[in-house]
Design goal:
Layout lengths: L3 H9 L30 E3 L11 H8 L4 E3 L8 H10 L5 E3 L11 H5 L8 E3 L7 H10 L5 E3 L41 E3 L8 H10 L5 E3 L34 E3 L8 H7 L7 E3 L4 H5 L4 H11 L5 E2 L7 H16 L8 H10 L15 E8 L2 E8 L4 H7 L1 H4 L6 E6 L10 E2 L17 E6 L12
Parallel strand pairs: 1-2, 2-3, 3-4, 4-5, 5-6, 6-7, 7-8, 8-9, 9-10, 11-15
Antiparallel strand pairs: 11-12, 13-14, 13-15
Helix pairs in contact: 2-3, 9-10, 10-11
Pfam families: Ubiquitin_2
Keywords: Leucine-rich repeat, Repeat
Protein name: Tubulin-specific chaperone cofactor E-like protein
């Protein structure tokens, strides 16, 4: 397998030449005098090159002295010693991606502590299976680190305590680690990607907040978190005292909880207590599957419950008009509920807007099922039809009555009130739903074959 240096030379040439020489061509070009290593880009991407080591230190240092972003995802690096050798020869690197390299071997203490890489601010370790002791060592060696990616690493607990861990310290019921710590580990880290890890306890997630006290962005989407309660597992005991879900996240501004296991409105109310939270993603919750409402209605209730959140599920900031409408809709929604079912937010909003009169309920939805006369030649038949069916689906269901396949069929809609002035309207679009024709009971649909070129107007009489 090639070293980083060999992979670099294969891509850019042994002397740093990006383009091969072209012989026997009368071309005059201006070639500036510069070091060959400058042909290596400052943003260097060497994915899927089977790299397993650094290579000759002097040659690598000469070629990579100006590299500031280095992407080595999907290679064969397994030893941290080689990763550190690469970092030593790329002193200006600010961004390093090592995703999908199997780096589960533990970092030795001497390797992690000397030297320190002051320039590296972004480190991506997705699906590397790096262990917590190694992460702790890296954090001590990277004082300028601001963004860390630890997604898809199969973590079921968090341990940045630096203590020896025994399996008996893990709860059999919820898999979390019964080792608590609240000491800061790295105060510069602002953004943490932790998506797709099989961690279910918010108490474990809170350990990340204590370890990184200035954390502003946290992504824990695709994690099977069931509740934001700090300590819901009875088997673990309550060593957390009276701590709340938000206690560890005083500076958190962005939180992604998409596709987690949160299933009650109580979780939304807990999110409302995060003091600095301004942007939130909460799509794909089991709560939305159980809550019968449109997406618009759900958004109104969310906006009303989350007074501090400015952007919800992406997009622009929630405008003042939408928030006002959401809060009034929230009051009216819970006005119809028993008083015991009204959340605290209801009473807060009543204090702001007062008690509102209920809106007049006007159902503008079309009838779901209507009775239509179907005419095919000399045969007529009255059927009940679901107006949410498509034209294509209707044709398939009329094959037996028509006596020929749907692919050979034409349909014409006749409005009972406009039949004498407007005539039949061909239903040309297969994906169009029937209600879009304003179809009502008593109307007629004429079935014709594509082999015919016209319809007798008298057939509509």
């Amino acid at each position: 397998m090639p070293s980083l240096l060999e992979a670099l030379e294969r891509k850019y040439g042994a002397k740093g030449e990006v383009n091969p020489c072209i012989d026997d061509m009368p071309v005059a070009i201006f070639v500036p005098k510069r070091s060959p290593r400058l042909s290596v880009p400052t943003l260097l991407v060497l994915n899927d090159c089977d790299i397993d080591c650094a290579g000759d230190a002097c040659a690598l240092a000469d070629k990579c002295a100006d590299v500031v972003e280095l992407d080595l995802a999907n290679n064969k690096l397994t030893e941290w010693q080689e990763v550190f050798a690469i970092l030593e020869q790329t002193p200006r690197v600010r961004f390093l991606n090592l995703s999908f390299n199997r780096l589960s071997a533990q970092i030795q203490a001497a390797q992690a502590l000397q030297p320190k890489w002051d320039s590296l601010s972004h480190l991506v370790l997705n699906s590397t299976y790096v262990g917590w002791p190694s992460i702790l060592g890296l954090l001590k060696s990277l004082p300028a680190l601001e963004e860390l990616h630890l997604s898809l690493n199969e973590y079921s607990y968090v341990d940045l305590s630096g203590k020896e861990i025994d399996e008996k310290d893990r709860c059999e019921a919820c898999s979390r680690l019964n080792v608590d710590f609240t000491e800061p580990v790295h105060e510069q880290l602002k953004k943490l990607h932790f998506s797709g890890n099989p961690i279910s306890s918010w108490r474990e997630i809170s350990k990340l907040g204590y370890a990184f006290p200035n954390l502003e962005t946290l992504l824990v989407n695709e994690c099977p978190i069931k509740t934001l309660e700090p300590d819901p597992c009875e088997k673990c005991g309550d060593a957390n005292g009276n701590k709340k879900s938000h206690d560890a996240f005083s500076h958190l501004r962005f939180l992604n909880l998409n596709n987690t296991g949160l299933a009650t409105w109580d979780e939304v109310d807990r999110l409302a207590l995060f003091p600095a939270l301004r942007s939130l993603r909460v799509q794909g919750w089991p709560l939305w599957e159980r809550f019968e409402s449109t997406e618009h209605e759900r958004r109104l209730l969310l906006v009303a419950r989350l007074p501090r959140v400015r952007t919800l599920n992406g997009g622009g900031a929630v405008p003042a008009e939408e928030r006002d409408a959401a809060e009034r809709a929230f009051i009216r929604y819970y006005m119809e509920k028993p008083e015991a079912d009204r959340p605290d937010r209801y009473w807060e909003l009543v204090g702001v807007h007062g008690k509102l009169d209920p809106l007049v309920s006007v159902d503008l939805r079309p009838e779901k099922r209507v009775q239509i006369t179907f005419t095919c030649g000399d045969t007529s038949e009255v059927r009940t039809v679901d107006v949410y069916r498509t034209v294509s689906d209707l044709k398939t269901r009329l094959e037996r009555l028509a006596g020929f396949p749907a692919s050979k069929m034409r349909l014409f809609y006749v409005d009972q009130e406009l039949r004498d002035t407007q005539g039949p309207e061909e239903m040309k679009y297969p994906t169009k739903q029937l209600y879009s024709y304003n179809i009502r009971s008593g109307d007629e649909i004429i079935i014709d074959s594509k082999f015919k070129h016209s319809i007798s107007v008298s057939s509509t009489a």
